[in-house]
Amino acid sequence: VFLGESTNTHMRARGGLRPDQVWANASGTMKLDSATLSRPIQDAATGNLITITEAAESRRPEYLVLSFGLNGITGFIQNKDSYLNNYRTLIERIQSVSPSTRIIVQSVYPVAQASCQTDLKFSVPPETINAYAETLNGWLREFCPTLPAVRFVDTASVLQNEEGFLRPDFTTDGIHLTKSAYDEILLYL
User: Burial letters for 33-49: b for 16+ Cβ neighbours within 10 Å, e otherwise?
Assistant: First the structure.
């Protein structure tokens, strides 16, 4: 089961996953913050709105793949403790209601070069976003082993070109991914 930002939500349509394999809210994207656990997601089985904790408790997935960091990256880079504490709270709450669920934390994905972007406008250049993503990924590499049954997986590495940007053939707009990108991620996982 996947939970995270819009790049995870798109896995349902572009990655060929069943609706119950992707937990998402109504907007299709999420940001990791102190309110993440209280915001509702849609239960694919019933259509009802439930919290992440309720979903974890009722579904008890064998694996839960989390991916947060790109949404809000300019704020996260300013406050490592807040970013990691929000991740810790999310993980610990899920584990408290579904202790057998193994958590996989994906790396923050890169974005494409400006020349590959269509309608997206970032507040900082793509090079800066990717540098921030690498910093967050370094934090996650150190953080994940401190929690039981949590593993960090560098899925970003299969999406990057030689310069560290999201490969142009893996994106539709500079940030969101194509089916072939999702195929690579799923194969890597």
Answer: beebeeeebbbbeeeee
